[in-house]
Amino acid sequence: MKTTRLEAFSDGVLAIVITIMVLEIKVPQATEPAALVPLIPVFLSYLLSFIYIGIYWNNHHHMLHTLQRVSGPVLLANLHLLFWLSLVPFATGWMGQNHRAIAPSVLYGAVMMMAALAYFILQGRIIASQGPDSLLRRAVGRDWKGHTSLTLYLVAMLVSLRSPGVGQAVYGLVALMWLIPDRRIERVLSD
Question: What is the Cα–Cα distance from 4 to 171, expressed in whole angstroms?
């Protein structure tokens, strides 16, 4: 199978995820600007998750450009990633509505950590299907950003047990770490 169907399906799922997230922001009945104040934590949760989904979409897009053909294990690993990303709207909504509570903050971190792990597994399946000299292997190297992200998600979840706000700040830090465009794959593709 060529990669275009996999890309189109994945793009569609991520577009739906973003749409579901924005629908969680309920329009206030009141017309005064003060009615928006309670929505600030909900909006900030949405913004963080929107950034994450955008990062996943961008990096997923680049990663699939290293692929010549799609194998069964790659398809399954991609579905695994999409499963975890499809849970982001739920975790985002719960954390946004309960931004000071421990459980929603920890759950958000668990979903993000599992999505990161699923991305790491997909990356491994692509490398395995292409061989040790694959473009993706050359591009990611030891993947310090991926390993650091997994560690920071775990730290943020543990910190959230004491201080959900600090844990959420660490989630933001991970997003900032990835927000700077990752040019590793672009460099290898242009060689």
Answer: 32
